[in-house]
Amino acid sequence: MGYTSKFRVWRGDDTDGGLVDFEVEVNEGEVVLDIVHRLQATEAPDLAVRWNCKAGKCGSCSAEVNGRPRLMCMTRMSTFSQDEVVTVTPLRAFPVIKDLVTDVSFNYQKAREIPSFAPPVGVEPGDYRMQQVDVQRSQEFRKCIECFLCQNTCHVIRDHEENKEAFAGPRYFIRLAELDMHPLDVKDRRRGAQEEHGLGMCNITKCCTDVCPEHIHITDNAIIPMKERVADVKYDPLKRILLKITSRDD
Amino acid sequence: MSQIERHTYDVVVIGAGGAGLRAAIEARAQGKSVAILSKSLFGKAHTVMAEGGIAAAMGNVNNNDNWQVHFRDTMRGGKFLNNYRMAELHAKEAPQRVWELETYGALFDRTKDGKISQRNFGGHEYPRLAHVGDRTGLELIRTLQQKIVSLQQDDYITTGDYESHIKVFAEFAVTDLLLDESAGQPRVAGCFGYYRETGDFAVFQAPAVILATGGIGKSFKVTSNSWEYTGDGHSLAIRAGSTLINMEFVQFHPTGMVWPPSVKGILVTESVRGDGGVLRNSEGRRFMFDYIPDVFKKQYATTEAEADRWYTDPDNNKRPPELLPRDEVARAINTEVKAGRGTPHGGVFLDVSTRLTAEQIQTKLPSMYHQFKELAGVDITKEPMEVGPTCHYVMGGVEVEADTQAATGVLGLYAAGEVGGGLHGSNRLGGNSLSDLLVFGRRAGEAASTYVDAAGAAAQITDDAIARAQAHALAPFDGDGSENPYTIHSDLQQTMNDLVGIIRNGTELRDALDRLESFKSRVRNVTVTGGRVFNPGWHLALDLQSLLLVSECLARSALAREESRGGHTRDDFPAMDPQWRQVNLICRMTDKQVNVSKQAVPTVPNELLSLFDVTELDKYFTGAELAGVTGGAH
After folding, report:
1. Could you tell me if residue A142 is inside a domain?
2. Are the C-beta atoms of residues B234 and B223 closer than 8 Å to each other?
3. Cα–Cα distance measured from residue A203 to residue B518, given in angstroms and rounded to the nearest whole number
């Protein structure tokens, strides 16, 4: 069953590094992360890689496999032909710490900028009542395992470092959508989405949806509906007139 | 030495899973400054792997449920070795802890009347597990993570600094607890550890430390546990002078994936059975009917027809034996496979495709569908899964005071969640772990805060203590080059799997202890190459020390307990013995050696015992213990 695969792994840090070739044993059913582990146990004990569950649930082992953002634990070696060179590189949108490990703190900063769940006033714990059909929309976004593959692939920041400050990224657009669609959240998140978090910079190329290992419909179910909600509040001509009148009163 | 980073906090929480985060939230609520030291990135802790749900007697689906029923189920599941007070607090407080999560933003699946839905699970008399499909752990960790962020946002508004009261130190591993031993009983002064990212060291000075480090599953080869589960907290506690309790009890979850080899051990949630999945051997027989032990005969169906009726009419039929507690099901599967009635890959069949529609399976068990499809090429809506036992949970842990989670022997040290011992007795029920994290995480956070109020600032940490901790952490760079940490780890896992696994005996356990001795000397020769920046070889070399120490505690306790109970089965002592029910085994370090001693199990007060039928108690307790007990409510 086993065969020898040609594996190419990026090694180095933020200042210096390159691709290193390995020839490594592959057995039936194995995934890319198994092969990285075999390299650690044999030829490269200090090869840096992040991983936790190896079951597609924690979102730690994100990398680019043959240029495509993937979870290494969910990428089976059988998806490549046996003579194909498999190239594993770190996420490109974030600074490399070492080898396959990148500094993803950008995402944690953005998480902090999103206003949290605003619970309904006067509803005691235990008295929350919501229908399944109403929670389902937000539940889809709460499937997110924070692998940050969507953040990594989004060309708004992948190719434009300078956009990072103004742009929260797809992971946080689904967080905004999740809260806006939460049946009991009392905060209006529409203006903030546009004015604070850069929703308008997304031009819905759906790359994020494409790479999501949880198959969340990021663009169709979160970003586009949020854009529509923003348009409703910000660009409705009648409302604009009304707003002008009322703001004059202020 | 001068470059070592120093921090001062009121409370340091080691571990950022459910228990650690809930503890931090509580300590913050009590006005304390809190550091959370997380071995992984924030939000990646092992809690994320929990699938089925969180047990709490809310009675949303069956209003006969209440804390007394939950208490009874927990004690039964643990074969009455549980710390009764923890089981009582847990059953009473779990509903409040779950409801609280909704105020943090959690979105559980709903009943028709809009309440939190609850599902059936092994050993629970009524549908009791609040859940979100089969990704409940993810919901729990994310909710707590987001609550921490929201508290940081509040602090930002008042202080201009997100991290003025709670700071998460991501990818920070603790290698030593620092103690003040100047006045009799040792007390916590802080801890020492390294940033995985840079290899730099840091010292935290704090009067109270809460261990919330989870379990020990990486001691075993076939395990559902993630890389972090290396027994760090267990090891820190016993090395500091505290004690570990019930370490012989390890839960082997009955259903892990068995094929392909690289995914062997990955969890298949008990919800599959809770939602109707049945177990069959290679002959097509629903074998669990052959394995209903006497103590459970009254609660489980003895015919397929009755078991099948239970799914639609639970009030008038008994539950199917697939939903027996995990220890029973795991042993049964093990026996079937050994008797030659296993599947081609050495498991048994778990089939949900005949009872639920493809759509129902994809709604109720989406992760399982996804996991089998992507990792094994199996479509569970059409064909059965192949499953077998996998190391899942350690019931044993730091011996704690039930109400406060204060660790024995070291002032200022607390333990909550899987690293704490006692609640689950000899076997944990599914769903009781997530509730454990919340109930006792909160209690630990509260008690640590109260302790800090009384104890004041932490003792000064000497340069000498820091130098020792640093030397300990750097030692693997100075080995003689003869041993590779990955090889030793793999050998250790194989040994534990083969000799201290689901079925044990004295000869094998003694053999295991001999081998553990040889691993100890090998670990001293471990050498790591490369630098200190994110070096997994170095990290594993340090983790190996904890793994070895907990493995030894486990094997020694297993050898000492000469009976079979829950997550400890001896084929040389196959019976459950009421005399042993009165005994907890305690591990402590004396002169750098692990010693095991016997200690009496706390006596269950009559008002709790009387919640049971005396004829049931007869099967567990000695006649002398039951004299004067007049239970009979059920």
Report:
1. yes
2. no
3. 61
CATH of the domain at A9: 3.10.20.30
Report the alpha-carbon distance of residue B350 to residue B172 in Å, rounded.
40
pLDDT in tens, A62-115: 999 999 999 999 999 999 999 999 999 999 999 999 999 999 999 999 999 999
Q: Domain ends where: A66, A81, A102?
A: A102
In whole angstroms, what is the distance from residue B28 CA to residue A196 CA?
29
Same domain as A220, residue A170: yes
Q: What percent of chain B has pLDDT over 90?
A: 91
Contact A131/B228, CB-based, under 8 Å?
no
Examine residue A121 and state whether it is found in any structural domain, yes or no.
Answer: yes
Is A250 part of a structural domain of the chain?
Answer: no
One domain for residues A144 and A224: yes
Q: Kindly report the backbone phi and psi dihedral angles of residue B392, in degrees, each rounded to the nearest multiple of 5, phi listed first.
A: -130, -35
Q: How far is CA B432 from CA A224, B82, B113, B191, B380, in A?
A: 40, 13, 25, 30, 27
Classify B525 as helix, strand or coil. coil
Which CATH number does the domain housing residue A124 bear?
Answer: 1.10.1060.10
Output the CA torsion sign for B472, B473, B474, B479: positive
Distance in Å, alpha carbon of A58 to nearest chain B alpha carbon: 5
B337-354 burial: b if 16+ Cβ within 10 Å, else e: beeebbbeeebbbbbbbe
Q: Calculate the CA dihedral of residues A50, A56, A62, A68 and round it to 10 degrees.
A: 150
Rounded CA-CA distance B409/B461 in Å is 20
- Picking from A41, A132, A146, the nearest residue to B109 by CB comes out as A132
Number of folded domains that form chain A: 2
- The side-by-side arrangement of strands in the sheet containing A62-65 is A17-26, A3-12, A85-89, A62-65, A68-71
Q: Are residues A110 and A234 in the same domain?
A: yes
State whether B48 and A182 contact (CB < 8 Å): no
Q: How far is CA B489 from CA B40, B261, B536, in A?
A: 20, 18, 13
Q: B588, B510, B436, B419: which is closest to B87 by C-alpha?
A: B436
CB contact under 8 A, A60 and B150: no
Expressed as residue numbers, the domain containing A11 is 3-102
Q: Is B253 a catalytic residue?
A: yes
Domain match, A126 and A229 both? yes
ipTM score here? 0.95
> Could you confirm whether B128 is annotated as catalytic?
no
Asked if residue A183 belongs to a domain, the reply is: yes
Separation in Å, CA B113 to CA A12, A127, A133, B109, B238: 56, 12, 12, 12, 49
Do A51 and A85 belong together in one domain? yes
The token duo for B556 is 């020694």
Check if A31 contacts B (Cβ < 8 Å): yes
The model's pTM is: 0.96
Lookup: tokens for B386: 């192949």
3-state secondary structure of A207: helix
